[in-house]
Amino acid sequence: MVSLRLTLLIFLTILNFPFDHGEIVSSKPQGIRAAYWPSFTGYAASSIDTSYFSHIYYAFVLPSPTTYALDITSDDVEKLLEFTNATSLWNPPAKTVLSIGGGGGGALPGIFSSMTSEQYSRTNFINSTIKVARDYNFDGVDLDWELPSNESDMSNLGLLFKEWRETIEYEANATGRPRLILTSVVYYASTVSFDGGPRSYPTVEITKYVDWVSPMCFGYHGSWENFTGLGSALYDPNTNLSTNFGIGSWIQAGVPSEKIVLGMPLYGPTWSLQDRNDNIIGAPTTGTGPGSGLLVYSQVIDFNKENNSTIVFDNTMVSYYSYSGDSWISYDDVRSIELKVRYAQSQALGGYFFWALGQDLDWAISNAASETWLN
């Protein structure tokens, strides 16, 4: 009887002990506090203060337009080694993710479209991403395809995610190494409605195969428009160009909230006002403003100080803008970032990410976001 009771006690203890793939699950998940490191800006990887981040993305490497394997140039090797060597200096350590693709248009969207359209090319791509990630000791891989252009692209993207995850699982089982993380940057909303007909992301495959998606909740307004606007408004009572709409669309489409990582910018759009006395949101403009239409956060703060700018916090849309003379700037500052992080928590999101490292000022934004998320 004593032996039976002891056996039962051990069984119940094991049954109730929290495990996740063999690892103890924290009673309070820390979530994702991420940022991208642009390898092309000259900002040193060794300068990253990882006390503010759980994950650092390397941006970017590109696929070959012919073989679809990652095309690692000599410049890429230099930057990858810089990044890899820097990780040993980070205290505390952070997970590292290799990001593939990037914005800017050009040929890249077509390359991704062709790559995902055939199984052999998807296989070449997938195998090369795993090899490069392992060669440079990354913890995961990330797809930054901006943007799938039609429903066929979206369907093929779902196939890519399925095959990618299956191959990652197989590789981990075969080698005994921890499975690579699989993530993807996506449009701010689950459906894209410009540059072609409406098309929706493969949310079933995303939910099943991707560890998390990272909606780019910025770029709502910019120099392509002839009026001022907030580049990363949390809310917008007049349009669907807002973070609340975008995140809500992903949740409504069936993606679990914990698999959504909110993207926030460390830069903002600028305009030149048509009439310097008409300086509200929606005011007519004549072209780009300071920085040829874009300033990073540190530049915004410097500009505001040097030009004695008028600074406005819009309570309704939860974002900042400033103006001086005919210059008008939209941006986020500590208060709006804290409120956006609180919003992410209220929606039970998996975390947040920033584009990009090197654009903050004395880690003010990074610190505010991290402190808000963790407390």
UniProtKB/TrEMBL annotation:
Secretion signal span: 1-22
Keyword Ligase: no
Pfam family, one: Glyco_hydro_18
Domain of life assignment: Eukaryota
GO annotation, biological process: carbohydrate metabolic process; chitin catabolic process
Domain GH18, residue spans: 31-375
InterPro entries for this protein: Chitinase_II/V-like_cat, Chitinase_insertion_sf, GH, Glyco_hydro18_cat, Glyco_hydro_18_chit_AS, Glycosyl_Hydrlase_18
MF (Gene Ontology): chitin binding; chitinase activity
CC per GO annotation: extracellular region
Keywords: Glycoprotein, Glycosidase, Hydrolase, Signal
Family, as annotated: Belongs to the glycosyl hydrolase 18 family. Chitinase class V subfamily.
Descriptive protein name: GH18 domain-containing protein
Species of the source: Lactuca virosa
